[in-house]
């Protein structure tokens, strides 16, 4: 039986309970983070917690605990659950209150976290995944890592129904991002990803990948690209905390490039894995 953490206590997952009046349940009034566990250690948890602090601030929610405490809890969940490669999920909701859209300022946030194993270094998806193009039906504050995610649920369900791994969300022909990932293309040796704005989440993996690309003098431009440009690209890939860097080898019915992981994608995935190994070696 796995152990999770809820409102200050470690308990078996089956014993963790949230009220039906929790605003996370009633309104999706909450924010969350997902950090990778690699070699048994949290990866970039400080960056994830900094983004959590920002998300909390943007929706006027107090921090449920210090980031040091949350860091300790997250690492402890990875360790006690014997996770070598996997993830820790952390969610903060506005808390329990009588149902009313405006929130009482005195309500105490609910907070919980759990860990799961997942293959990261030896991910079978590193051979290449397919994506399905869907309209981006989300709200105007995609920079907040909110738990209100019905649009992504439907986008990723449509992607799965189409036999693909991820949604490629687009608005007016421009790619915004994946259902739960940042999207990139490579054309004529230049790597492109959308610039930060309220249209996309500031991916932690995106930031790290940009830094790695700069380190090795890989030409990179932060510019939005169209679905047509993605389809005509030499390479396409996605990034996320629990996928690292994954090649996209098909967009709906169109094979990308020659249908195999391209050199830029592979180089970036290797660089990402090297960094992850280095950072988590104790
Ligand atoms: N974009 C969206 C909409 C996401 O949900 C995620 C991750 O869940 C990402 C991008 C990638 O962000 P990160 O690299 O921090 O995992």
From TrEMBL:
> Which InterPro entries does its entry note?
Aminotrans_IV, Aminotransferase-like, BCAT-like_C, BCAT-like_N, Class-IV_PLP-Dep_Aminotrnsfr
Keywords for this entry? Aminotransferase, Pyridoxal phosphate, Transferase
- Protein EC: 2.6.1.42
Q: Which CDD domains match?
A: D-AAT_like
- Point out the signal peptide segment: none
A Pfam family cross-referenced in the UniProt record is Aminotran_4
Q: In which pathway does it act?
A: Amino-acid biosynthesis; L-leucine biosynthesis; L-leucine from 3-methyl-2-oxobutanoate: step 4/4; Amino-acid biosynthesis; L-isoleucine biosynthesis; L-isoleucine from 2-oxobutanoate: step 4/4; Amino-acid biosynthesis; L-valine biosynthesis; L-valine from pyruvate: step 4/4
Task: Enumerate the Gene Ontology biological process terms.
Answer: amino acid biosynthetic process; carboxylic acid biosynthetic process
What's the superkingdom here? Answer: Bacteria
- One Gene Ontology cellular component annotation held by this UniProt entry: cytosol
Q: What cofactor(s) does the depicted protein rely on?
A: pyridoxal 5'-phosphate
Q: Which NCBIfam families match?
A: PRK06680.1
**PANTHER family, per the entry:** AMINO-ACID AMINOTRANSFERASE, AMINODEOXYCHORISMATE LYASE
Protein name stated in the entry? branched-chain-amino-acid transaminase
Q: Which organism is it from?
A: Gemmatimonas aurantiaca
